Amino acid sequence: MATVDNFFSSHPVLKSIELGYWAKESLSPESESKLYQAESIRISQYDRKLPPVLRNFQGKHATLDCYLCEASDLIEFVNRWKSGEAYQKLEYLKIRILREEFGIPLDETLNAIGAQHIDATRKPPTHTLPKLFIEYAFEPMTNPIISHSYVVRESDNRVASVLIEGKTLSFGVWDKTEEEFLSMVD
Predict the structure, then answer these.
(1) Residue 5: left if φ>0, alpha if ψ -120 to 50, beta else—which one?
(2) Which residue blocks in 20-149 are alpha helix, DSSP H?
(3) End-to-end CA distance of the chain
(4) How far apart are CA 19 and CA 169, in angstroms?
(5) Running DSSP on this structure, what letter comes out for residue 86?
(6) CA pair distance 64, 67, nearest whole angstrom
(7) With pLDDT > 90 as the criterion, what percentage of the chain qualifies?
(8) What is the pLDDT of residues 53-72, one digit of tens each?
(9) What pTM did the predictor assign?
(10) How far is CA 10 from its chain centroid?
(11) Does residue 89 surpass a pLDDT of 90?
């Protein structure tokens, strides 16, 4: 981690970062700060101690593969976004839990975040954005999020679609108020 720490410390904030690690030490606060400020991150995190990306991310797009992420971490993330306390610039987040025996409890999580629901007989809008970090040229857009569940940020009434499928939570923030968002529902 010392090499990674030196790299981040000696460079300005990067536009995108892809990082996978398993280590017993943490990055310095300065390096972690630069990591969290990147516009787009793709992190594979195998040790819960290192760094708390989900809690501190300040950019626009994040894809996280976590081994020890718990449903309570996801609930805390959504509730901090809803309150306006954090993630002001966030547009897209995908979290995949790697631990085989763990899935995200759908009903429990949706209830805990106060999700609202579009009637099942109606078609929700599809959330997708141009990727800020393009890993493959044939995948220039974020994965589509088509969900009947959504949450509303209290501070500005903006909406985020929430999709939970097995071990994956997808979260797409709309540049729309709840009223504008609901007018897009077929």
Answers:
(1) alpha
(2) 29-37, 53-56, 71-83, 106-112
(3) 49
(4) 20
(5) S
(6) 10
(7) 51
(8) 777 889 999 998 887 778 88
(9) 0.88
(10) 27
(11) yes
Convert 20-40 into a string of H (helix), E (strand) and C (coil).
EECCCCCCCHHHHHHHHHCCE
Q: Kindly state the tokens that stand for 117.
A: 């629901």
SS3 of 141, please?
A: strand
Residue 104 near residue 74 (C-beta atoms within 8 A): yes
Structure token pair of residue 91:
């547009």
- List all residues 6 or more positions away from 149 whose beta carbon is below 8 Å from its beta carbon: 110, 115, 116, 117, 118, 161, 162, 163, 164
Q: In 40-71, which positions are buried (b, 16+ CB within 10 angstroms) versus exposed (e)? A: bbbbbbeeeebbebbeebbbbbbbbbbeebeb
**pLDDT tens-digit profile of 121-172?**
999 999 999 888 767 667 788 999 999 999 999 999 999 999 999 999 999 9
114, two tokens:
């106060």
Residue 22, Ramachandran bin (φ over 0: left; ψ between -120 and 50: alpha; else beta): beta
158, burial (CB in 10 Å: exposed 0-12, middle 13-18, buried 19+): buried
- DSSP strands (E only) in the chain: 16-21, 40-45, 61-66, 92-97, 116-117, 126-127, 145-146, 149-152, 158-165, 168-177
